[in-house]
Structures are given as C-alpha cells and as structure tokens.
Amino acid sequence: MPEKGCCTPGRDGAGLAAFRPGPAVGAGKEHVRNCAYVPGGTGILGTARPVIADDFEGPPVRRRIKDLWWEAGAISVAQFRRFVEATGYRTTAERLGWSFVFHSHVPGGVEGTLGVDGLEWWRRIDGSTWEFPTGPDGAPAGNAYPVTHVDWQDANAFAAWAGGRLPKEAEWEHAARGGLGDVRFPWGDREPDDEGYFPLNIWQGQFPHRDTGADGFTAPAPVLSFAPNGYGLYQMVGNVWEWTSEPFRVRSVNAAARRINAAARERKLLKGGSFLCHRSYCYRYRIAARTGNTPDSTSNHTGFRVVYDRPPPG
C-alpha cells in the first residue's frame, strides 16, 4: 500500500494571528441536537493491524471512556446557520476571504486559480465559505449537508455555544467502532470497492481525475446518509474529515516519534477520511487512520462532530 501524504490542504499558519475567542460557553437555545448515546467502557485506541506506518496507527492501547452523547452525524449546515444567526460569528474562511476547493468542484473550471504545489487538485477559491462551499459562483450549501470550510477554531466555537466539545481521539475511535472491537470500519472488516459494495461515501475510480460516483455522491452526502453503526452514528468514516480536540501526535517515545511530534506540535488531529479518499491514494477512511493539519486550514471536505458530556435537556 503506498504511504502517500493525505489530501488535506493546509494554510500553513496563514491567519493564525487573526484568531479570536469564540462565543462564551453555554448551550445555545437555538441549537437542535440530534443525539445518540454511546456507552462508555474500555475503548481501543489504535489497531493491531496498522496500514500507514508513518501515521503510528498502532499498536492498540486501552483507554477508559465515559458515557457520552454524540451528534448522530457531522454538524449540518442548518445547525451551523442557527449558530451564526444567534451569535454573528464569522468563520476564518470568511475573514480571510478564501478557502480550498477540490478542482472538479470549481464552477467554470480552474483556469486562473491557484493550486497547492504537489496537490494541484486543491485550488484557492476566493469567496468559498460554509454558505457557498464551491465559491460565490456555485450553489449554496444545502441544510442537510455537513458544514465545511470550518477550521479548528470555528468548530470549537460552535461546540462551546452548543454546550458540547470536540471529541478526543480515543473517544472518537470508541464511538466509531460501534461496539465491534478492533475492526477496520464502523460496520466491520469488509472492504468497500468501486463496483458493488458502498457502505460509505468515498471515491470510486481514478483519483484525482475521475470519480464515477457509484456510491451516489461525488461530493459530500447529507449527514444522515448510509447506514449508522452499532451506536447509531452516521458516516464516522468517509464524507468529511472531522476535527478532534487534540494535537496531531504519535504514541511513541522513540527518537523518530519525538521529531514528528516536535514538527507537528502546531497541527490538530482529524479523523475519518472524506469523500475524496480511495484505497489507491489516501487509505484513511479506516477507524485507526489519522492525519493532522494546521488549525486555520479549511476546505470543502472538512467538517466536525460534537460530543456532549451530559444528556440533552428534556
């Protein structure tokens, strides 16, 4: 399996100085939760069957997990809109004036746009935001779809307003496994393919040139699409990357791990992969897979999910 870099474009620190505190912590009255209860216990972090060695996906370790209430899907555009209307919040992409859009989603084509060196399928598109995920010339975001073009600060601001938080990596993996143990995917170990087995929204075809859309989508799917896992959570893998609360670091004390952690200390951890993942390029739609990015990075394949320490009111 090729150990290629992941397809998450980063701003590499641009705009970090512009960060500002989000709204005060407290459950926003306008927030409508769609919660699934995930029982605690002893959870598995990592796997005994790692695939991408450089990401330190293993060995597995045990972590104590408490009972939690999770958003059943990634935070939707409708949920994020209520937050913005209640608080007047402006995302990093809105304040900086641009974000990354996958090349085949750019209305009218990519001529005249700037690409990422080595990842030219990512284009800088002025005016691409959570409301207009492919740019001002594209269609507005649908309410049932995951909110994208949100960075780590934006995700934390929403979570605080909603009375929740971003999950830790061990919590995320425990929830994604749905009670099945050290499985590769939320439904078990059966591999998705390009022809007939489509349990999630990923790429089918030849990346990055042709996505056949055999699973029904060539872009993000609505947040409650496909079958939920054993805990009632939808699309824990595929669809959109999800920010977590933690920095990207490796669980090792050797010299190589220390160098990686030192170089990545400004990066935040994302889990789950996205609709752009394919086994031939970015095999990170597995539960134990992981990547990191700068906390101010935004794109049309990155969102987040919120977890709550207490059950929803009522």
Gist?
With about 325 residues, the protein is α+β, with helices and mostly antiparallel strands.
Give me the CATH architecture, please.
Alpha-Beta Complex
- Radius of gyration, CA atoms, in whole angstroms: 18 Å
CATH class: Alpha Beta
Strand content: 15-25%
Distance between the termini: 49 Å
* Mean of pLDDT: 91
Helix content: 10-25%
CATH evolutionary superfamily: paralog of FGE (formylglycine-generating enzyme)
Number of helical elements: 5
- Give the beta-strand count: 14
The coarse overall form would be globular
H/E topology pattern: EEEEHHEEEHHEEEHEEEE
- CATH fold-type name: paralog of FGE (formylglycine-generating enzyme)
Kindly give the count of domains. 1
Low-confidence stretches: 1-5, 13-25
Summing up helix and strand content along with how strands pair, one would put the structural category as alpha+beta
Largest sheet: 4 strands, mixed
